[in-house]
Amino acid sequence: MAIVRTPGLPYLDDGKLISTNPVTGDEVARLAAAAPDDVDTAVRRAREAAERWGELGFAERRRRLLAWNAVIARRMRELAHLMHRETGKPVGDGLLEIANTIEHLSWAARNARRVLRARRMRGSLLTPEYGGLLEYQPYGVVGVIGPWNYPAFTPMGSIGYALAAGNAVVFKPSEYSPAVGEWLVTTFAEAVGDAPMFQAVHGLGDVGAALTRSGVDKVAFTGSTATGKRVMAACAESLTPVVIECGGKDAMIVDADADLDAAADAAIWGGMANAGQTCVGIERVYAVDSVYDALLTRLVDRAGKLRVAADEGANVGPITMPGQIDIIRRHIDDAIARGGTAALGGLDAVRPPYVHPTILTDVPEESDAVCQETFGPTLTVTRVADADEAVRRANATPYGLGASIFGRRRALALARKVRSGMAAINSTISFAVLPTLPFGGVGESGFGRIHGDDGLREFARAKAIARRRMPSALPLMSFRRTPRAEKLVTRVMRAMHGRR
Ligand code: NDP
After folding, report:
1. Ligand 1 in contact with 154 (CB < 6 A)?
2. Residue ranges of the chain with pLDDT lower than 50?
3. Is 146 touching ligand 1 by the criterion CB < 6 Å?
4. Residue 17, ligand 1, Cβ within 6 A
5. Which atom of ligand 1 is nearest to the CA of 211?
6. How far apart are CA 89 and CA 230, in angstroms?
7. CA of 279 to the centre of ligand 1 (A)
8. Nearest residue to 306 (alpha-carbon basis) of 360, 350, 344, 335
């Protein structure tokens, strides 16, 4: 009897991981699945390679990473089509994702020296005979575990920055997007030559779990909060440091002086692009009373025009992970059962493998659609008395990834008050595409930062070296210290610091 497989669901067959198209179920890739021993072997090879890569220095690593980036740029259409086949993402969305991946890799390669180069540090008044040297040394081998929703951009936020900082990387792509992961590794090998600097290990979640216990020097995890907690627990056993980039429930706040057309455009794009499968996608909109009705009309109008389909040029593609459809359905169902109204879509909008745009209003704040990550093309739109109430509600979830504020006079103050790692003013998701800005969350959205100066430092250890440059006139850190010296120190401290 033929086995009926769910389109999109990856599976193992004779030691191979098979990824399938979420609409047709056609096989997209067949890659060797790693056994636990294979993960250890990859980490061992990476460790040898890390030494060579670290010794290359910033200039040579920059040259090689830019050569790789050039290959990605030249072949970005090919990668976008692969993404489309493997995840269902419209090709235009794939191209945008890759363009931003390229920008980040270029920035990391070009800025690693400025951020991480060794620098001389001054001594202090008490210790003028010492000089300091601050170095940022690579960890060695970084294990990167990635999700499928932005299968290039998201893991590359760790991979590109870790490589630029001088580490080797072992990458476990999501089982839903292994072909994209393999494409990245293959093009690196073509451009840079020395493949063990960057390898992939494929398989299901157990391969990710094996990577966390493989002796890597740091783990950069991006995925759901539940898995993030498991990864952190595994890393705690060996005190392996971690960066944890998890899910979110990002809110958009629309104040009374907002440009409503721009706000509606951003809410629909931020909430429904990539079929809503965006960690920093907009899931909740809080609009002040005076603009609520006008905004809602615009939201329904714009979302109603989106074309949902499997083809390359659709606005909204399929839901990549078949299991997510039940979660989206449950959230819509729960919202309506608790008194919410579907201004657009609703339960009928869930037509696997698609979910059509859905806008829910009057949804109680304690319902799943407001509290938990939905990860589908849905928005809750809620009327609030003023922007302060909007901030209170936006902050009422344990997540804290991104936020979006539309307005003029108070926009910056509101952006500061939202409990999140990032905020976009009069735009959405824009913080992720500025390579100079760090990316990461607070609370259940995780901790640590990728991108920007902080993202480079995340993949390097600060090493402090103090050197005595001349004999000590006043030996303090020695048993030769005298009562006279102690008296002098006391007098100087009082004079310098005791007068406030
Ligand atoms: P998951 O948490 O299901 O999986 C993430 C990765 O972890 C996958 O590669 C997965 O492998 C692997 N994994 C599974 N179990 C373990 C384990 N026990 N130990 C180690 N690794 C394991 O997330 P999704 O792939 O479904 O991604 C969607 C989530 O990612 C959403 O919550 C989204 O918000 C979040 N995300 C966060 C971003 C951020 O930057 N903050 C960016 C993008 C997405 P496998 O797939 O084989 O199970």
Report:
1. yes
2. 1
3. yes
4. no
5. 20
6. 28
7. 11
8. 344
- 245 within ligand 1 shell (Cβ under 6 A): yes
218 lines ligand 1 (CB under 6 A): no
Q: Which of 428, 415, 94 is nearest to 280 (CA)?
A: 428
Dihedrals phi, psi of 346, to nearest 5 degrees: 115, -160
Count the neighbouring beta carbons within 10 Å of the beta carbon of residue 74: 10
**DSSP-based three-state secondary structure for 242:** strand
Ligand 1 pocket, mutate which of 227, 242, 397, 444 (most atoms under 8 A from CB): 227
pLDDT value, residue 195: 73
What is the pTM assigned to this prediction? 0.96
CA distance 450 to 440: 7
Q: How far is the CA of 393 from the centre of ligand 1 (A)?
A: 27
What three-state secondary structure class fits 219? strand
What's the CATH superfamily of 11-247+452-460?
A: Aldehyde Dehydrogenase; Chain A, domain 1 (3.40.605.10)
Q: Report which protein residue has its CA nearest ligand 1's atom 5.
A: 223
Residue owning the nearest CA to atom 48 of ligand 1: 205
- Outline where DSSP puts E strands in 46-203: 119-121, 130-138, 141-145, 168-172, 198-200
Measured CA angle at 164 (ends 161, 169), to 5 deg:
70
Q: What is the pLDDT of residue 4?
A: 60
- Letter string b/e over residues 47-70, b meaning 16 or more CB atoms within 10 A of that residue's CB: bebbeebbeeebeebbebbeebbe
Angle, CA 267 vertex, CA 263 and CA 273 arms, to 5°: 140
401 Cα nearest atom in ligand 1 = 41
- Cα of 197 vs centre of ligand 1, distance in Å, is 23
pLDDT tens, position by position, 26-81: 999 999 999 989 999 999 999 999 999 999 999 999 999 999 999 999 999 999 99
Q: Is 358 in the pocket of ligand 1 (CB under 6 A)?
A: no
Q: Are 150 and 142 in contact (CB under 8 A)?
A: no
Ligand 1 pocket, residue 150 CB under 6 Å: yes
- Closest C-alpha among 244, 276, 285 to residue 444: 244
Query: Both tokens of residue 4?
Result: 């009926």
Which CATH class for the 250-398+402-438 domain? Answer: alpha beta
Q: Left, alpha or beta for 209 (phi > 0: left; psi -120 to 50: alpha)? A: alpha
SS (H, E, C) 327-379: HHHHHHHHHHHCCCEEEECCHHHEECCEECCEEEECCCCCCHHHHCCCCCCEE
**Domain locations in the chain as residue ranges:** 11-247+452-460, 250-398+402-438, 470-497
How far apart, in whole angstroms, are the C-alpha atoms of residue 316 and residue 310?
8
Task: Give the catalytic positions in this structure.
Answer: 245, 279
